[in-house]
Design a protein that fits this description.
The complex is a heterodimer of chains A (about 300) and B (about 650). Chain A is an alpha/beta fold and about 300 residues long. Chain A has eight helices and ten strands. With about 650 residues, chain B is of the alpha/beta class. In chain B, strands 7-15-11-12-14-9-8 form a seven-stranded antiparallel sheet, with no helix packed on it. Classes of the chains: A alpha/beta (about 300), B alpha/beta (about 650).
Chain lengths: ~300, ~650
C-alpha cells in the first residue's frame, strides 16, 4: 500500500487480514458471502492479500434474489473469472416458484424469503461453520454493537443481549455442530475508509457506483432505476433519464439512486465528505419498521 | 424521508487537491478510546455530543431521532443525543447501554474509534471487551454524585487492562452551578483512590455533555478552568506505543502451503521489526533459523514492523505450526506451564479452582485450570480478600496450571502476548479474561524424568491392559456394589486391580474436603490423578464416584491416554435409588439434614456418551458384572 507505516488504513488492513486468517486456521468449513458491492470488493481484495501466494481457501457464496442489477451479475462473473475463484450462487427456488417479488409481497416479506431464508438454506445445505460478511459497524445502530466474531445458534439467530465477550484479538471460535459464527473483517472500517482504500489500491468496482445517465422513476422521494421490464410502472409514470449513481447496491427495486455528477473515485469521495445523509438512507428495507435491522439480524439476516 | 440536499464539493477542490487530502487523511494517526463510568453519568450523551458537534450526524439520523421523540421515546421531549449511540431496541426502550457500541469520527488532526461501554455492573464484561483494544479512556463522573462504586470498578478494570492515560470527565457541571469547589472535591476524591494504581497521566476536565460545555468549545460558564477542552485533549494526548522498539515477536497464525514449493508462516507481528537475514528463535521448541523472505501480495518487503500482517519464509526446514512464536534470539519470550495472572470472571457460573477451561492466548490453545486463587480484589477499596471462587464480574489474582508449555510475555509489556481468554468446555462461552503477570517457573528447565520401567513393561508382567473404569451414577444406583463384585471376579481370574471408592477416599486422602461445588471438583481431581498413577502402575482401576458434573468427568478422561479410560454409567432412576436408600441418605436429604445432595438439591448431569451404560434399575448386579466382563474381553483389556 502506498502509505506510511503508521497509517490508519494500513492498521485497518492488517487487522482485517488477521481476522481472515484466524477463521481459516480455526474453522473446518468457512465461506465468504459475496454480495458484489464495494464492501465485498474490499473484503475479497483483503482475502487475496491474506492468503497470498495461495488463493483464498474457501468458496464465495452469492445469495441471488433474482432482482439484482444486471450490471452486478456481469461484474460478479467477471471478478470470479479474473481472480480464478470458486463461486456458488444460491437462489431460493421455493420463492421463485411462489413468484415472491418486492412489488406484490412488500419489501419485508420479500427480503425474508429471498435473502434471509435463502441464506439459511445455503448455509445449512453446505454445513458452513463460519461465514464472512462485509458489514461495517458505522452502517447502522445494531451493527455498531456486533462482535467481529458473532455467534449464531443452530437456527442462525443472533442474541444481541448475550454476546460473547471479545477481548484483544483472542476470538472465541468454538461452536457445536449446527451452530456457526458470522465474521465481519470490515467491522472497524467506515464508508470513507472503504472508498479511500478502493482508490489507493485501485480495486475494481461495479460501474453503477459512478454517475451516468440512467432511466429512473421517483417513488416516495426514492429514485428507483428501471433496470429491466419487470418494474411495474404506475399509471402515468414515465421513466426519466437522469444523471445518477448509487451509494450502496442491493436489489434494484429497493435501492435508491442519488443525483450526482461524480464519475470518478475522487469525485465520489469529495461528494461523500460533503454529504449530509447517511449511507443507508437509500435502503428501503431498513425503514420498514423501527429497529428493523436488529430484528432481521436476530432472524438470521446478515 | 428527508429531502436529498447533496452539497457539491467546494469549488476549486479539483482532483489534485482531493488526492492530497486523501493522502493526508490516510496518514492520520488513530486513537482508540473508550468512555466508561457509572450508569447515567452520560457516556452515550457525551459521544452523541462529540459526533453532533463534529458535524458527523447525518440529516436522516437526526430526523429518525426527532421521530423517536414524537413517539415518546426520548426521555425529556428533546432530541436525546444518547440515542445516536444506543443501537439496540432494548437499550432505547430502557434508556440504558447494554453492550459496547463502536463509533467512528475524525477531527482535522486525528481519526478516532470510540467504544461506548455500559455502566451497569452486570454488563462489566462488555466494558472490559470495549477497553481491551483501547489506548485511552474517558472516565465519566456525574458532578452531583461524585465518585461511585462503579466509577472505582471501571477505574480498576482500566488499570488491570493496562490503560495508562485517562481523562476524568466531571459531567453535568451545569447541574452543580459550574462550581469549581465541587469539581476540586471530586478530583481530590478520585486522586486518593488512584494513587496506588499505575496510571501515568490523569487529566480532569469539567464538562456538560448535554449543553456542550468544554466538549468542543471552551465553556463560558467555567472561566476558572484553564485546561484543554475534551476534544483538544483527545487530539493531543500522546499514546504513541513503543511496539516497534520492543524485541521481535510473531505468533504463527497459519501455515501457508499452496504447493510443495512454498511453505510460509503467516502472522501479525506483535513487537519489534524484522528484515530478511535476521535470525529468529522458534518457541517453545527453541530451534534457531533465519528469515529468508517477507512475502506480501504487494511484493516482498525489506522490513516489516509491529502491527503488520505478513508471511515469512525461513532458511531451514523445521517443524513449525500454528501457536508457535518466532522471537528475537537475544530476547526470548517466556515459556512456562505455570503462570500467575489477574483474571476477570465473566460468566454466571462461578470460576471453580481445579476445573478445566480452554485457554486461548493469541494463536495458542490449551487446557488450563486455576490451581490457586491467591486473593480476590475488592474493587471498591482495592483490598485483597480471601476467597475460593470468583463470581460474575469479580477479579482475582490466580495461579494457573496449563496442559502444555505456553509462550508469552507479561501483559504489561505486550497485550497480544500476555492477554488470554478462558472458555467453558461444555457451553463454549467465554467465561474469563486473564492478564499474565509472570511465569511461575521456567518449564524449559523442568523435564519429565524419563523412566526405564514404564507402564507397558509393568502391564506386560501382569498380562493385562491397564485401564480406569469410571463408575458414575446417583447415590444408591449400585456403583460400589457392582465395582466391588467386578473386582472379586477379576481377582479370581488373576488380574491385578484396585478399587477407589468415593466414601473411603473421603475418609483419608480427601478428608479436608466438603461438599461445595469447588470441593467436589477438587475431590474428583485428586481421585483422577490417583487413578492415573495406578494405571501407570499397570493396574485395572475401578473408581466408584457419584461424579455428577460432566466437566469433571471430562477432566478425568483427559488425564488418560485414549482407550485407557472407560466411563461406566450406572443408570438407575432416582425413584429406585431413593427407595433403596442403603445408607439412609435420601431420607436425611429430604428432611433437609444434608445439603447439596446429588439428585435432590444438587444436579446430576447424565453422561451424554458413556462408554458403557448399565441398566441398574432393571438388572441384578451379577448380570451387570458379566456384561462388564464380556465387554472388557471384547475390548482386549483382559
Amino acid at each position: 500500500m502506498k502509505t506510511t507505516a503508521s497509517s490508519y488504513l494500513r492498521q485497518l488492513e492488517a487487522e482485517s487480514i488477521h481476522i481472515l486468517r484466524e477463521v481459516v486456521a480455526e474453522f473446518t468449513n468457512p465461506v465468504m458471502l459475496y454480495s458484489i458491492g464495494k464492501d465485498s470488493a474490499v473484503m475479497l481484495h483483503l482475502a487475496m492479500k491474506a492468503f497470498h501466494p495461495a488463493k483464498p481457501p474457501f468458496p464465495l457464496l452469492h445469495v441471488d434474489t433474482t432482482w439484482k442489477f444486471r450490471e452486478m451479475i456481469t461484474f460478479r462473473d467477471e471478478t470470479v473469472k479474473r481472480l480464478g475463484l470458486d463461486l456458488m450462487v444460491h437462489v431460493n427456488e421455493e420463492g421463485v416458484r411462489e413468484k415472491i417479488s418486492p412489488f406484490t409481497h412488500g419489501s419485508a416479506l420479500y427480503t425474508d424469503v429471498m435473502k434471509t431464508q435463502a441464506l439459511k438454506q445455503a448455509l445449512d445445505a453446505h454445513g458452513f461453520d463460519a461465514a464472512f460478511g462485509g458489514a461495517r459497524r458505522d452502517e447502522e445502530g445494531s451493527r455498531a454493537k456486533e462482535r467481529v466474531f458473532s455467534f449464531r445458534s443452530e437456527a442462525h439467530g443472533w442474541d444481541p443481549k448475550n454476546q460473547r465477550p471479545e477481548l484483544w484479538h483472542n476470538y472465541n471460535t468454538r461452536v457445536r455442530k449446527g451452530e456457526s459464527i458470522r465474521v465481519f473483517p470490515l467491522s472497524n472500517w467506515t464508508e470513507l475508509d472503504i472508498w479511500s482504500y478502493i482508490h489507493l489500491e485501485e480495486i475494481p468496482i461495479v460501474p453503477l457506483y459512478f454517475a451516468a445517465t440512467r432511466p429512473v422513476v421517483e417513488r416516495d422521494g426514492v429514485l428507483i432505476m428501471v433496470d429491466d421490464e419487470r418494474l411495474p410502472l404506475d399509471k402515468g409514470e414515465k421513466p426519466e433519464m437522469r444523471q445518477v449513481r448509487f451509494r450502496t447496491l442491493g436489489c434494484y427495486p429497493l435501492t435508491g439512486a442519488i443525483d450526482s455528477e461524480a464519475n470518478s473515485l475522487p469525485g465520489i469521495i469529495g461528494e461523500l465528505m460533503a454529504t449530509r445523509l447517511s449511507e443507508r438512507q437509500g435502503r428501503v428495507i431498513d425503514r420498514d419498521q423501527a429497529g428493523s435491522m436488529e430484528r432481521k439480524k436476530q432472524e438470521g439476516y446478515f | 424521508m428527508p429531502k436529498l440536499t447533496l452539497v457539491q464539493p467546494e469549488s476549486g477542490l479539483d482532483s489534485e487537491a482531493l488526492e492530497a487530502m486523501l493522502a493526508e487523511e490516510a496518514n492520520k494517526d488513530l486513537l482508540r478510546f473508550l468512555t466508561c463510568g457509572s450508569v447515567d453519568d452520560g457516556k452515550s450523551t457525551l459521544i452523541g455530543r462529540l459526533l453532533y458537534d463534529s458535524q458527523l450526524v447525518y440529516d436522516d439520523q437526526i430526523a429518525a431521532l426527532e421521530s423517536d421523540v414524537k413517539k415518546g421515546k426520548g426521555a425529556s421531549g428533546e432530541v436525546d443525543l444518547a440515542m445516536l449511540v444506543d443501537g439496540l431496541q432494548a437499550e432505547r426502550e430502557q434508556g440504558i447501554t447494554i453492550d459496547v457500541a463502536y463509533r467512528y469520527f475524525a477531527s482535522p488532526k486525528r481519526k478516532f474509534i470510540v467504544a461506548d461501554t455500559p455502566g451497569h455492573e452486570q454488563y462489566t464484561r462488555n466494558m472490559a471487551t470495549g477497553a481491551s483494544n483501547c489506548d485511552f479512556a474517558i472516565l465519566l463522573v456525574d458532578a452531583r454524585k461524585g465518585v461511585l462504586t462503579q466509577t472505582r470498578r471501571h477505574c480498576c478494570i482500566l488499570n488491570l487492562l493496562g490503560i495508562k492515560k485517562i481523562a476524568l470527565a466531571v459531567n453535568k457541571m451545569d447541574l452543580v452551578n459550574f462550581s469549581s469547589d465541587r469539581f476540586d472535591e471530586i478530583v481530590s476524591d478520585f486522586e486518593k483512590f488512584t494513587k496506588t494504581l499505575s496510571f501515568e497521566e490523569i487529566v480532569a476536565i469539567p464538562v456538560a455533555a448535554a449543553t456542550g460545555d468544554n466538549i468542543l468549545n471552551p465553556s463560558s460558564h467555567m472561566r476558572w478552568y484553564h485546561g484543554p477542552t475534551l476534544m483538544v485533549h483527545l487530539e493531543t494526548v500522546d499514546v504513541a506505543s513503543d511496539r516497534t522498539l520492543r524485541p521481535f515477536r510473531m505468533p504463527v497464525q497459519w501455515v501457508n502451503r499452496p504447493d510443495s514449493d512454498f511453505r510460509g508462516f503467516a502472522g501479525t507481528i506483535s513487537g519489534g521489526e524484522l528484515r530478511p537475514g535476521d535470525e529468529v528463535i522458534v518457541l517453545p521448541a527453541g530451534k534457531r533459523t533465519t528469515i529468508n523472505r517477507i512475502v506480501t501480495y504487494d511484493g516482498e518487503l525489506d522490513v516489516a514492523c509491529a502491527g503488520d500482517a505478513v508471511t515469512l519464509t525461513l532458511a531451514d526446514e523445521i517443524d513449525i505450526s500454528r501457536g508457535d512464536v518466532l522471537a528475537a534470539p537475544d530476547a526470548e519470550a517466556e515459556v512456562s506451564d505455570q503462570i500467575a495472572a489477574n483474571v476477570i470472571w465473566m460468566d454466571q457460573n462461578p470460576m471453580l479452582p481445579g476445573r478445566d477451561y480452554i485457554l486461548k492466548l493469541g494463536n495458542q490453545t490449551a487446557t488450563a485450570s486455576i490451581s490457586t486463587l491467591k486473593y480476590k480484589l475488592n474493587v471498591d477499596n482495592l483490598e485483597h480478600q480471601a476467597g475460593t471462587t470468583l463470581e460474575l464480574n469479580e477479579v482475582g489474582y490466580c495461579n494457573l496450571s496449563i496442559s502444555r508449555a505456553l509462550v508469552f510475555d507479561p501483559y504489561a509489556r505486550d497485550r497480544d502476548m500476555g492477554g488470554f481468554i478462558l472458555i467453558d468446555r461444555l457451553t463454549n462461552a467465554t467465561v474469563g479474561a486473564g492478564m499474565i503477570e509472570f511465569g511461575l517457573r521456567r518449564a524449559t528447565n523442568i523435564h519429565w524424568q524419563a523412566l526405564d520401567i514404564d507402564k507397558s513393561v509393568r502391564a506386560q508382567m501382569k498380562a493385562q491392559k491397564p485401564c480406569a473404569l469410571w463408575f458414575t451414577g446417583l447415590s444408591g444406583s449400585g456403583k460400589s456394589t457392582v465395582a466391588s463384585l467386578l473386582e472379586k471376579q477379576l481377582h479370581a481370574r488373576g488380574q491385578h486391580t484396585y478399587l477407589l471408592d468415593g466414601d473411603n477416599v473421603r475418609h483419608g486422602l480427601n478428608k479436608d474436603l466438603g461438599f461445595t461445588d469447588a470441593d467436589r471438583v477438587e475431590n474428583i481431581r485428586r481421585v483422577a490423578e490417583t487413578a492415573k498413577l495406578f494405571v501407570d502402575a499397570g493396574l485395572i482401576v475401578m473408581v466408584s464416584f457419584i461424579s455428577p458434573f460432566r466437566s469433571e468427568r471430562r477432566m478425568a478422561r483427559d488425564l488418560f491416554q485414549e482407550n485407557e479410560f472407560l466411563e461406566v454409567f450406572v443408570d438407575a432412576p432416582l425413584e429406585v435409588c431413593e427407595q433403596r436408600d442403603p445408607k439412609g441418605l435420601y431420607k436425611k436429604a429430604r428432611a433437609g439434614e444434608i445439603k447439596n445432595f446429588t439428585g435432590i438439591d444438587s444436579a446430576y448431569e447424565q453422561p451424554e456418551r458413556a462408554d458403557l451404560r448399565l441398566e441398574a434399575g432393571k438388572r441384578t448386579p451379577d448380570e451387570l458384572v458379566s456384561e462388564l466382563i464380556s465387554s472388557l474381553e471384547k475390548r482386549g483389556f483382559i
